[in-house]
Amino acid sequence: MQNGLSLSVAESGYLASEKFDDDGRIKRTGTWKSATAHIITAVIGSGVLSLAWCFAQLGWIAGSITLALFSVITMFNSILLTDCYRSPDPVTGKRNYTYMDAVKSNLGALQYKLCGIAQYGVLAGITIGYTTTTAISMAAIKRSNCFHQNGHKAGCHVKNNMFMVIFAIIQIVLSQVPNFHKLSPISVVAAIMSFSYSLIGIGLSIAKISGEGMGKTSMTGIPVEPNFSGMEKMWRTFSALGDVAFAYSFCFVLIEIQDTLKSSPPENKQMKKATIAGISASTVFYMLCGVLGYAAFGNDAPGNFLTGFGFYDPFWLVDIGNICIVIHLLGAYQVLAQPLFGFVETCSKRKWPQNKLVTEDFILCGYSINMFRLAWRTSYVIVTTIIAMIFPFFNDFVGLLGACTFWPLSVYFPIEMYISQAKIRKYSFTWIWMQILSLACLIVSLVAAIGSTRGLITSVESFQPFQSES
Q: Rounded to whole angstroms, how far apart are CA atoms 172 and 409?
């Protein structure tokens, strides 16, 4: 009898270990492949659309070097960050479920609060940017059909607000996905879409070059002329740096992505593999889109190269490209919003543990619904949509987000956490060159922020809120 009882207990423990991870949560099933899909979904977003414009501001030499440098720096810091998922040991230590948890474990409470302000402020900003970008792409579909029917000289102007509302309604539904772990199918579809519209943009660029020849380009970008001053070129160059920084922004969701991985092989090894694969693939597409887009349009490259005037033929291919952008950003919005959703909901449950509206779910038509989650996430989508309607400025807004994101979240915190966890001695050679890298990136972020802020101020002066038009 005693032996039977012992066997029963042992079997029970075995089943528990099969269903749950070492932290008591349901066993994670993610692999480096699913993590790569998440990374590509987060990285290849609206930033790719502005790269041709960035090359027009920077020129062939500076544009290519800038893309390569941002790629290397982002990959390096992301690899450092993968070792901070567990603390103090990167393989056997306690799990950090979020980026902020990793900062708190390694750098303390003050840095944790500063990180929260930076991370969630940027995540909110990016979701606003995605709302604007999606509306522009939806409007581009309608415009391309109008041009096809009425000729390229037709006005075919479209109000963007209606499309922002449509996007918001879809996001309200998608936002009810309870957590990041349920997003893998959405991320896979979104990653496929990002590759698709990048390939379409590349194909259209090649077709335009073949049919019309290369646009007017130069080694240093748009030349200084009487109607384009040196000061204006400087501001645009700064803004372009912000756009490139934004194109590589994803570190602030890396820990959340890593938290979806199964524990064997070790999460940091899988995540390093996913990071290298995801950023390398993204860089190849970025370089192709930037180089070929600039070659096709020259110094007249538009802010969003898939909605440029020269791409209204073949109209059906333009439509497919913009549909891919819309589908991709529907998923990318959720990948970036889920950490913010989860943070607010976790804090609310801690503060009001007895409130059933906050803590309990109920079943409606077979679906689990939480009233607080429904109200909070719906309100968030509505507020971000209204802000997007007020400030629908693609390039400058993207540049400002990139500038605000890049240094604190992609450089400073990863480097400082790694130094703390690896116990790198202060003023050692490694410590010094890491601090030099951080300082250099801070300077780049500051000048990018200045340029983008100046561009936003200029745009706001001549714009009426809620009157965005494509």
A: 27
Residue 67: alpha-carbon gap to chain centroid: 16
Q: Look at residue 16 and tell me whether its pLDDT is greater than 60.
A: no
419 with 431: CB under 8 angstroms?
Answer: yes
First to last CA, the chain: 78
65, 306 Cβ separation under 8 angstroms: no
CA distance 114 to 109: 9
Cβ atoms of 285 and 248 within 8 Å: the answer is: no
Least trusted range by pLDDT, from 75-89, 137-151, 414-428 = 137-151
Cα distances (angstroms) measured from residue 64 to each of 22, 43, 219, 248: 45, 18, 10, 14
Query: Which of these ranges, 2-16, 59-73, 312-326, 446-460, has the smallest mean pLDDT?
Result: 2-16
Predicted local confidence at residue 15, as pLDDT: 46
- The alpha carbon of 196 is separated from its chain's Cα centroid by a whole number of angstroms, namely 17
Residue 194 has pLDDT above 70, yes or no: yes
Let me know: does 313 contact 208? Beta carbons within 8 Å: no
Query: Which residue, among 299, 287, 303, has the nearest Cα to 69 in the 3D structure?
Result: 287
The residue ranking higher by pLDDT, 40 or 255, is 255
In the beta sheet, which residues pair with residue 83? none
The pLDDT tens digits of the residues spanning 430-440 come to 999 999 999 99
Query: pTM for the whole thing?
Result: 0.79
> According to DSSP H, which parts of 25-108 are helical?
32-43, 51-82, 99-107
Contact 279, 71 (CB under 8 A): yes
| pLDDT of 35 above 60 | yes
Each domain of the chain, given as residue ranges in start order, spans: 25-351+385-461
Which residues are CB-contacts of 374 (< 8 A; sequence separation ≥ 6)? Answer: 176
Beta bridge partners of 292: none
Q: At what angle do helices 267-297 and 32-43 cross, to 10 degrees?
A: 30
State the average pLDDT over residues 71-93. Answer: 91
Query: DSSP assignment of 274-340, as one string?
Result: HHHHHHHHHHHHHHHHHHHHHHHHGGG--SSGGGSGGG-SSHHHHHHHHHHHHHHHHHHHHHHHHHH
Q: Which CATH architecture has domain 25-351+385-461?
A: Up-down Bundle (1.20)
